[in-house]
Specification:
The protein is an alpha/beta fold and 325 residues long. Helices cover 37% and strands 16% of the residues.
Length: 325
């Protein structure tokens, strides 16, 4: 109890006087009602170059880490990215109350965009693990080899939790995300399927990665497919995958067609294969998964909802996590 209060005070002191008072009080209220503690882990030399937030429940009911992407991030280095990462565990922001599961939660503190790339034609989105982030060649960039850094952060968490709490965590994790964070976790999980037991991607913009290098004589580059990345099909098939969207999802959330979020090559591949309609792409990708006999993948369309979680999705998310944790 004393240790918990000290650590929470440290987290709050990190943000006090650096964010608006109303936001600070909102965060304090949220942290105060939790039974566990939020811990901020800053970047570590030679391990990882961006920080993350860790939630440790008072009673750890599972040895499986839940990774949730950061969906509300702003520019690189903005203190609000930490604020956003904490609130991502709530139903209000993340769409699902992750802390109620009494599991360890890991949220990478990524940024939204940090600079224009490719001659100002599209931007650099660590929060979505866009193509230019994953293939970044600049070793001095914060997000160079972003998924390798995520894996080192996961190793750090396992060591940290064992040393401080005496709990040995599982090697495979659960990935959960909604909207931008869904794209981050589904892209991580696809390329690291051996490390993931369950993937839940809500509001994913019909951008599940096609597990093929070539389709209809078109090279499926990342993040459309796996032409130019290391990919483990057997592990991918064994990983439980759930992708869902609301039937009223609008084209304004279709980042595959939004030039700010993707590059022209990726957009052109989507258009050539599936057209520019988000639902046409949804059903065609679903059909490809079915023809490839990926039985562990579900594509769900929830009626009467748009770009949001609903009670049915929350119920199924809880069932899945409890089953696979």
């Amino acid at each position: 109890s004393i240790q918990k209060n000290k650590k929470e005070e440290k987290m709050l002191s990190l943000l006090k006087d650096k964010i608006d008072n109303a936001d600070y009080m909102k965060l304090k209220k949220y942290i105060d009602k939790q039974k566990g503690e939020f811990i901020f882990i800053d970047k570590k030399d030679n391990l990882f170059n961006f920080p993350f937030v860790l939630y440790i429940p008072s009673i750890i009911e599972s040895n499986t880490i839940i990774m949730h992407g950061n969906n509300m991030a702003t520019n690189e280095g903005n203190i609000y990215n930490i604020y956003a990462a904490i609130l991502e565990t709530s139903e209000e922001v993340g769409g699902f109350n992750l802390t109620a599961l009494n599991q360890i939660i890991y949220i990478p503190v990524t940024s939204n965009y940090i600079h224009p790339a490719n001659n100002n034609m599209h931007e650099f989105f660590p929060m979505q693990a866009t193509r230019n982030v994953v293939f970044c060649k600049d070793k001095n960039n914060t997000y160079y080899n972003i998924f390798d850094q995520v894996n080192r952060q996961l190793t750090y968490i396992r060591e940290y939790v064992f040393e401080n709490y005496g709990v040995k965590l599982n090697d495979r994790i659960i990935c959960h995300g909604f909207s931008s964070s869904a794209k981050f976790v589904l892209r991580y999980a696809t390329l690291n399927a051996k490390k993931v037991v369950l993937l839940i991607a809500g509001g994913f913009g019909s951008q599940a990665i096609i597990p093929l290098k070539v389709y209809n004589d078109i090279k499926l580059i990342y993040p459309v497919g796996v032409y130019d990345v290391v990919f483990d099909l057997p592990s991918f098939k064994s990983m439980k995958q759930v992708y869902f969207m609301g039937e009223n999802e609008s084209s304004s959330n279709d980042t595959a067609m939004n030039f700010r979020h993707t590059d022209e090559n990726v957009k052109n591949i989507y258009v050539e294969l599936f057209g520019s309609d988000i639902w046409e792409r949804f059903y065609k990708i679903k059909d490809i998964y079915s023809k490839l006999d990926i039985k562990n993948a579900e594509f769900i369309k929830y009626e009467h909802y748009g770009h949001t979680y609903n009670d049915e999705a929350r119920k199924y998310t809880k069932e899945l996590i409890l089953k696979f944790r």
